[in-house]
Amino acid sequence: MTDRDAGSRPFDLAAGARAWLGGHNRAARRELELLLTGTPRPPAGPIEAAFVAAQTLEEAEYFTDKLLPRLVPSGVIWIVWSAQRGIGLDSDALPGAMAKRDLHECGRTRLCDTVYCAAFQR
Questions:
Q1: Residue 45 burial (CB count, 10 A)
Q2: Which residues lie below 8 Å from residue 35, measured CB to CB, with a gap of 6+?
């Protein structure tokens, strides 16, 4: 994924795509809230995208396991984290953890100076 033009849909989401947003990483959630303004976020039912603002790999795995049943076959799970020296999610371990759930990495980008994300699909 590359930097997007002003007015384009974030994360290549189609208009009307349903998304879930959660997790305990406050810095990452703030960025996501801004980017996903106006995106439908139903509390139940199928979703095209999930955004997990994770503080740890274990948190990313927990939410991924909870969200997989809701994800449509072509859906994407974005794991989002803030990079802070010496703490936080081990992004190098993400692909292996997601592969155990039959998900493969399909993109990685930086949202701002300290917030990064990786996308995974079935």
A1: 7
A2: 10, 11, 111
Question: Which of 97, 13, 16 minimizes the C-alpha distance to 51?
Answer: 13
- What's the pLDDT tens digit per position in 68-107? 999 999 999 999 988 775 566 888 899 999 999 999 999 8
**Residue 36 CB partners (closer than 8 Å, separation 6+):** 10, 19, 21, 51
- Helix (H, G, I), strand (E, B), or coil: what is residue 58? helix
Count CB neighbours of 54 within 10 A: 26
Tokens 């917030």 belong to: 115
Higher pLDDT, 72 or 15: 72
Domain count of the fold of the chain: 1
| Side chain identity, residue 83 | A
Buried b (16+ CB within 10 A) or exposed e, 1-31: eeeeeeeeebbebeeebbbbbbbebebbbeb
Domain membership flag for residue 26: yes
CATH number of the domain to which 56 belongs: 3.40.50.150
Which residue is listed with tokens 């997989």?
Answer: 68
